[in-house]
Amino acid sequence: MDKEFQEQFTGIIKFTPPLYQQRYQFVKDLVEKHKPKKVADLGCADCTLLWMLKCCSCIEVLAGLDVCATVMKENMHRLSPLPGDYLQPAERSLTVTLHHGSVAHKDPCMLGFDLVTCIELIEHLEESELKKFPEVVFGFMAPSIVVITTPNAEFNPLLPGVILSRHPDHKFEWNRAQFESWALETARSYDYSVEFTGVGHPPTGREDVGFCTQIGVFVRKCPHTIESIQSEEPTEAVYQTVFQAVYPSLKDEKCLQNAVVNEVIFTAQIIKQSLLGHLMPEPEEYSDVLTETELEFQPSMDCVSEDLETLVVEYSMEPFVSGNVVYIPLTTIFSFPKVNQLCGTFEKFCELIAGKITLSSDGSAVMLSTEYENE
Ligand code: SAH
């Protein structure tokens, strides 16, 4: 809603990139710098910031809160994993949750966050909500870092069409002195330090008005002790969860197993194709390009008898063909970087593929039929 309004201004004042994007980029830069694992966006609206943040690989828990469920639901599907997330699961785990509720109320689901962002939120709060906000965010949630952005009223005369405020739902718009005084008092009360900055530079010659959006970055002075967390009164859950997505992650044993099995099958197929390509080029396809000597050199597909299979598998460090079976030693497959990286150790590799892939009788090689391309 705020975004639409400011889009109108961008045509005249020309913020490049648009102001809302500058605010989100500010948060993203902060995330890249401090690498928080758990981030909550209060007043998340259409979830655009959350959607941007889900790409930050340090984040494992992402939560959104808004008092308006409808606005959250409009675009929340963007927070679901994509097919690529299943095909190539990430190393980190990631859970994204959206809660319906107010920042004026405490809920235990909001505990344990490292970074809390309140982007263009406070100016939408009623006086009674704004009074409770510091205790909920700084007292109860008490994350290491809080970012609060709000319009700088001093910039408003430069925004054509803005008479009283930038948006009809804004309950107030503060000048820099008002925001700084509120922020300093809040920081002092809850033992935080605060630094002020902003986004949306004023035009040349009007530097006196400051940034279009003013930003306070609050950093908690003391680290949380176990005792301080435990001494919290138990709080009743009041928020409603409206969305949750758990991303596939290699930290999950089942997911790791799937990824390893897929990689082993893929690797084995490549080896098989290259082996069969060397052993038996299709005469009708290749005869015209192969020399006489190459055509003569066609190793026998039955070079190893069935009885000798076990013995040969045990001693062979190279893939080979026997009858209509291709044998690829596990050591060969494990030597491929991707398989190796996924599993770490050869023992883990064997453990992960056990029972999932057809192995030779002594368990030392993957068996693939020469006949089917898509085992
Ligand atoms: N952060 C977003 C949205 C800003 S508009 C952005 O940067 O674009 C403010 C949002 O705060 C709205 O979606 C509104 O529904 C929400 N909001 C207003 N009062 C709230 C409250 N008491 N608790 C939680 N969210 C609130």
From TrEMBL:
<keyword id="KW-0943">RNA-mediated gene silencing</keyword>
<dbReference type="InterPro" id="IPR026610">
    <property type="entry name" value="Hen1"/>
</dbReference>
<dbReference type="GO" id="GO:0046872">
    <property type="term" value="F:metal ion binding"/>
</dbReference>
<comment type="similarity">
    <text>Belongs to the methyltransferase superfamily. HEN1 family.</text>
</comment>
<keyword id="KW-0694">RNA-binding</keyword>
<keyword id="KW-0460">Magnesium</keyword>
<dbReference type="GO" id="GO:0003723">
    <property type="term" value="F:RNA binding"/>
</dbReference>
<keyword id="KW-0489">Methyltransferase</keyword>
<dbReference type="GO" id="GO:0005634">
    <property type="term" value="C:nucleus"/>
</dbReference>
<keyword id="KW-0808">Transferase</keyword>
<dbReference type="GO" id="GO:0034587">
    <property type="term" value="P:piRNA processing"/>
</dbReference>
<dbReference type="InterPro" id="IPR029063">
    <property type="entry name" value="SAM-dependent_MTases_sf"/>
</dbReference>
<dbReference type="GO" id="GO:0001510">
    <property type="term" value="P:RNA methylation"/>
</dbReference>
<dbReference type="GO" id="GO:0005737">
    <property type="term" value="C:cytoplasm"/>
</dbReference>
<protein>
    <recommendedName>
        <fullName>Small RNA 2'-O-methyltransferase</fullName>
        <ecNumber>2.1.1.386</ecNumber>
    </recommendedName>
</protein>
<dbReference type="GO" id="GO:0030422">
    <property type="term" value="P:siRNA processing"/>
</dbReference>
<dbReference type="GO" id="GO:0090486">
    <property type="term" value="F:small RNA 2'-O-methyltransferase activity"/>
</dbReference>
<keyword id="KW-0949">S-adenosyl-L-methionine</keyword>
<keyword id="KW-0479">Metal-binding</keyword>
